[in-house]
Design brief:
homodimer; 418 residues; alpha/beta; Aldehyde Dehydrogenase, Chain A, domain 1; Aldehyde Dehydrogenase, Chain A, domain 2; seven-stranded parallel β-sheet; four-stranded parallel β-sheet; 16 helices; 16 strands; 45% helix; globular
Chain lengths: 418, 418
């Protein structure tokens, strides 16, 4: 059978499974998630053996040490996968929740009820733990999932899928609720992205290139996250110790992630006092600073920032610094150069705090807090399936609710339309 | 200048306008909507004169009487447009609404605030009133709008736009908040659909062919509504007078709309009693009935339904009728042949009512009510910009809230991530 037909069969089976899944009770879903956790632990020898096949091939093809590290499954990795499944089991089920209900003048009771999206396709790179995490979240929200991981992890991903499917086949849930695409040909991804008749949503997880490739090809809606150019604006009235502490945390604590700080905007009235202190602490931690012309009059030992720096997502220990006249200039800079991800103002001024929260339309906007809180777990969603930086359906970190939609329900007693 | 560049300029201006618009207060927006209503009434002579140009050309090209009717602007049409603007002004503003807020263990207060989507493109057919209605809804929700109506209405649409823009230019709102594409070349639509950098959402309003063309070309998310194959299931325990009344209303009151009834499913135990009575009343109103084999044993004078009939959106006085064994068979039929639009069960059985509401995942699911209530106004949304039959972002009738998204807002007092 050719790849296109094979993908079509997978997609059709997923749709059939999703219809069954939408009617499964929370208790049964949780039970299956807990059994999956047990099964992964029980079959850890098998999993590690299959993972070694991937690692051996990866070593031969010269995968980077960082990629090898992400690909490796150890006992502890499996323990974390199992723990993740248990945590998803413990989350409230979004399906069936009536988010609001109201009475119409004609007596109709109208409400909105959460229902699963249907079938979700996840396209991701080397970490095999995504296979478990994404499956758990999709299942809990009543969706069937089709997983397409990196070719370098194919044996690991198929091994995980076989364990999960074994549990499903011994449960009231359909075994096709979780499917891994069993071949690594890129034509498989292209074929998958044409299956808009069967698949409701595509979530790509990986670098900007992967995401742009998926968006360019997909006939199915895609939740996109291109990049995070996050800003902190230190206002005239900021508590400078707090500003220091938050800037340091946002830049240094984990510089390689999308919610790390990339550009610091400093109000001109505090720049002389704040920037030398901040620079000293940041530079001690290995941060390279690139500044605007005015910044370089205060910090003598730094590089000049070019226009490109204001657009840059460094994902590294580099920080762009710009001095601005006021909050209006800070908001205008964010509007021009930002990526709609996460921005924070540090201020003691009530009006400016409220203005920043209201006027900045990024997916997460904070007052006096680190940008690093823009994360499904940290915001209290209980989980995270990804972050959206486009506005349709979901904007910002996505939890279980974002894997559902709502239908209208109507309780009538014979009403007809006049 | 070529079409593509001209469209790009329109899209860029819309994005600039949308950023200003997102910060405009409700009071100012409402004031502008009310002034637009006055301006349309004041300039009704001009509007009717421009409309006559379209009507003259349409007569020459032999437009159908129905299309001519939809194209015509009379004093009463303008009165209705003005009234529509006043009603939108009276609706609550969704922008700035904090839909929920919670405290995290570290003291962060996290909430979700409604914000505009940004720029919305509307692609529609001949009715010029859409130009006013869509502009009003988009503006109220803080969005800039780009309108591309049918070529047969170009003079009318440009006249409406010039009146609305005149009001905008005398207000704090940007004049580019409402733009009509000033040329009718189809290349303009294609170019518009590539502007994903500037436009956040496309809403096509018209027939299935228009919508499929837009979806095939668009790089921008599209809210789709292909068709409405709506079902009523008359259960064994139905009040047959109520079933009669609702079936008649759903089929006959306005057969040409998407929420009209297309297929009637009758429980086998009530078919003998119900179908002859229903058929008599429906046939008297001019309805042609096409039935399954079993139905034709009860109703002798009807045509046979083919497989195609179960998929059909007649939009006409035709009804497909099928006898089913039980509620499970009814739900399975809807799942196989339905369009995810609107379905209703008529029953006195509590468990079956709840089962139908829970298990049928169409965008509107009703108990003991006409399918004709699947409409933004009837459901209490206050307005309707369209109906979505796909699940991403919005599912079912869409009001003002569906023209917004949410951002996360965080009130902190110095929190950093550990």
């Amino acid at each position: 059978m050719d790849i296109k037909n094979s993908i079509k069969q997978i997609a059709q089976k997923a749709q059939m499974a999703s219809r069954q899944l939408s009617r499964i009770s929370t208790g049964i879903k949780n039970d299956v998630l807990l059994k999956m956790a047990e099964a992964l632990l029980e079959k850890s020898d098998f999993l590690i053996k299959e993972n070694v096949k991937d690692l051996t091939r990866a070593r031969e093809t010269g995968l980077s040490a960082a990629m090898m590290d992400r690909l490796t499954i150890k006992e502890a990795t499996i323990g974390a996968m199992a723990q993740g499944l248990r945590e998803v089991a413990a989350l409230p089920d979004p399906v069936g929740k009536v988010t609001s209900m109201w009475r119409r003048p004609n007596g109709l009771m109208v409400g909105r009820m959460r229902i699963p999206l249907g079938v979700i396709g996840i396209i991701y790179e080397s970490r095999p733990n995504v296979t478990v995490d994404a499956s758990a979240l999709c299942l809990k929200a009543g969706n069937a999932v089709i997983l397409r991981g990196g070719s370098e992890a194919i044996n690991s991903n198929l091994a995980i899928a076989s364990i999960l499917q074994q549990v499903l086949s011994e449960s009231p849930l359909p075994a096709e609720a979780v499917q891994v695409i069993p071949f690594t040909d890129r034509a498989g991804v292209s074929a998958l992205l044409q299956m808009d008749e069967y698949i409701d949503l595509i979530i790509p997880r990986g670098g900007e290139e992967l995401i742009r490739t998926v968006v360019a090809q997909s006939k199915i809606p895609v939740i996109k996250h291109y990049k995070g150019v996050c800003h902190i604006f230190v206002d005239k009235d900021a508590d400078l110790d707090m500003a220091m502490n938050i800037t340091f945390n946002a830049k240094v604590q984990r510089p390689g992630v999308c919610n790390a700080l990339e550009t610091l905007l400093a109000h001109k009235d505090i720049a002389d006092e704040f920037l030398p202190r901040a620079a000293e602490k940041l530079q001690k931690a290995g941060v390279t600073i690139r500044g605007c012309e005015q910044t370089r009059k205060i910090l003598k030992n730094i590089e000049a920032a070019t226009e490109d720096d204001w657009y840059a997502e460094y994902l590294d220990l580099i920080l762009a610094v710009k001095i601005v006249d006021d909050i209006g200039a800070a908001i205008a800079h964010i509007e021009k150069y930002g990526s709609l991800h996460t921005e924070s103002i540090i201020t003691r001024d009530y009006a400016n705090a409220q203005r920043f929260l209201n006027e900045v339309n990024s997916s997460t906007v904070a007052v006096n807090a680190s940008t690093r809180f823009s994360d499904g777990f940290e915001l209290g969603l209980g989980a995270e399936i990804g972050i959206s930086t486009t506005k349709l359906h979901a904007f910002g970190p996505m939890g279980l609710e974002e894997l559902t939609t709502t239908k209208f329900i109507i309780y009538g007693n014979g009403q007809v339309r006049a």
